[in-house]
Design a protein that fits this description.
globular; 4-stranded antiparallel beta sheet
Length: 511
């Protein structure tokens, strides 16, 4: 009898990694199984029981310990074929159980091993796609987070020396450490040197050994409003020192947000680590853009989980459109879905958008009848119990490429749907003028930009440059509504496990 089972999705992930990630389609599958095990062991919460099973479909795989841990294999010339004892020790420590002694240890060991391998495979297909750089993915997910912080250099003295190089004499009066950025409070000896600092940021970055893409940002914060000689420099730290923001924080924030508006979402934390939240109803429509690998999809999941941890179907309906048929499939069957499923057929998506325009007109009439100006007011006064509707388009460029007619109902919703509680969340990894046309731009005021390739793409999303210098992996600039300054934030790291836990909570299966 096999020891570990996988399902068809797991097998597809294994084959994708071997063929497209490692470039070794005929290599043993154990290579991917062991990578998956390592990925799962990085997650602090135990893998769920729904990964058990010995009959996972005819397209699944069956594996023996000999193929996975090397159990029973004779040592090769380097003596490193049998890793079974080492893996038992890892699982014993992880689960706080003895996987060596009693008779029940063997089936528990195999059960835990299967859960970890399958969870690791799920994490890989959530975070990596064929065509993306698998080596970079492995480096970021397996090694960077686990690397010890390097010896700290006296960055403050380096900054002062770099400032002197551009003719600025200053003192550093404090430093605040965020998840990825250190914010230095600089006091200028001469207030007239401020413009010199502003013009010399790129030279200062080069002096500190930073790339031109990951430069220093000058912040106009409240201290400068009080004292003209004070400025704040946000200096990125080396990647191996970054601190990730776990997806579990979304649940904690949502559970303590009783006084916040219903459609409050948390895309991440600010440069000093404080939660960043905004009300999607006030936005009232949002464009989320970023190139491949920028963290755009993870940010989209963070926004969705922010809503799902708090709101029941009576308060929130979702319309999910996924032209690429990749990212949102795991939400199928969610009770919040207005159509009962994720829309992957663009003909059906267009019909649904047209129906939403009709729903907007119907709600507008109801507001008039009830004598209220918007849905929030109607709900607060007990005159209306309609749910909010959030329309999520996972890839706006693909939707418009397949169905240009979809732009018409999107524009109408963007123009008039705010008051009736219908809000758009449009995501794209190809920000260009053809995708985000003038009519949409003028009616979708809230923006989140993750890293993009060029300053022109940054202007498409934000109406100004800056996103081309972001650090990637969830680093973002956001403007939660029109007329407010851009704010920098670092995204929550939402894993497949975080999404599973939230969906179990929504379906009332939380243990």
């Amino acid at each position: 009898m096999p020891d570990i089972y996988t399902d068809a999705a797991d097998e597809q992930t294994i084959n994708d990694v071997l063929s497209h990630g490692l470039g070794t389609p005929n290599a043993p599958k154990l290579r991917v199984l062991r990578i998956a095990l390592a990925r799962s062991l990085q997650i602090p919460t135990p893998p769920p029981e729904d990964l058990d099973g010995s009959t996972l479909g005819p397209s699944g795989g069956e594996y023996w310990l000999t193929r996975v841990t090397g159990s029973g294999l004779a040592a090769d010339e380097r003596g490193r074929q049998d890793y079974d004892l080492a893996i038992r020790a890892l699982l014993s420590i992880y689960h706080g159980e003895d996987m060596f002694q009693d008779e029940e240890a063997e089936p528990r060991y195999k059960r835990y091993l299967q859960r970890h391998v399958r969870r690791g495979l799920r994490e890989i297909r959530t975070s990596w796609r064929p065509g993306h750089d698998f080596a970079s993915y492995l480096y970021q997910d397996l090694f960077v987070a686990a690397s010890p912080a390097p010896a700290r250099v006296d960055r403050a003295q380096e900054i002062l020396a770099g400032l002197r190089e551009i003719g600025v004499i200053a003192q550093i009066r404090g430093v605040d450490e965020g998840p990825r950025i250190s914010r230095y409070r600089v006091y200028l000896d001469d207030v007239n040197h401020y413009d010199r600092v502003k013009r010399g940021l790129e030279k200062l970055g080069l002096y500190l050994g930073l790339s031109t893409r990951q430069g220093i940002l000058l912040q106009e914060d409240e201290e400068r409003e009080r004292e003209a000689r004070v400025l704040a420099l946000d200096v990125p730290r080396p990647r191996e020192t970054w601190q990730s923001v776990p997806g579990a924080r979304l649940r904690d924030w949502a559970r303590t947000a009783e006084d916040l508006p219903l459609l409050t979402v948390w895309p991440g934390v600010d440069v000093l680590g404080a939660p960043v939240a905004f009300d999607l109803a006030e936005a009232p429509h949002l464009l989320l853009g970023g190139t491949t690998g920028s963290g755009k999809s993870v940010c989209l999941h963070a926004l969705l989980l922010s809503l799902l941890w708090r709101l029941e179907p009576k308060d929130l309906h979702l319309v999910m459109i996924d032209p690429k048929r990749v990212e949102l499939g795991q939400y199928t069957g969610l009770p919040h879905l207005r159509d009962g499923h994720v829309l992957e057929d663009m003909g059906e998506a267009l019909d649904t958008l047209d129906d939403l325009v009709g729903e907007m007109e119907r709600r507008t009439g109801l507001l008039r009848e009830q004598g209220v100006s918007n849905l929030a007011q109607g709900r607060a006064q007990g005159r209306m119990d309609l749910p909010y509707i959030v329309v999520v388009v996972e890839e706006l460029a693909d939707l418009l490429f397949q169905s240009r007619e979809a732009e018409t109902p999107l524009v109408r919703l963007a123009q008039k749907a705010r008051a009736v509680g219908i809000h758009l969340l449009l995501a794209t990894q190809r920000p260009d003028a053809e995708t985000f046309t003038g009519l949409l731009r003028s009616n979708v005021p809230a923006r989140i930009a993750l890293s993009v390739r060029t300053a022109a793409e940054s202007k498409i999303i934000l109406d100004e440059v800056g996103a081309e210098k972001l650090l990637g992996a969830g680093d973002m600039l956001l403007r939660p509504r029109a007329g407010v300054p851009l704010r920098r934030a670092h995204g929550v790291l939402v894993t497949g496990d975080d999404i599973k836990q939230c969906l179990r909570h929504v379906r009332g299966e939380q243990r």
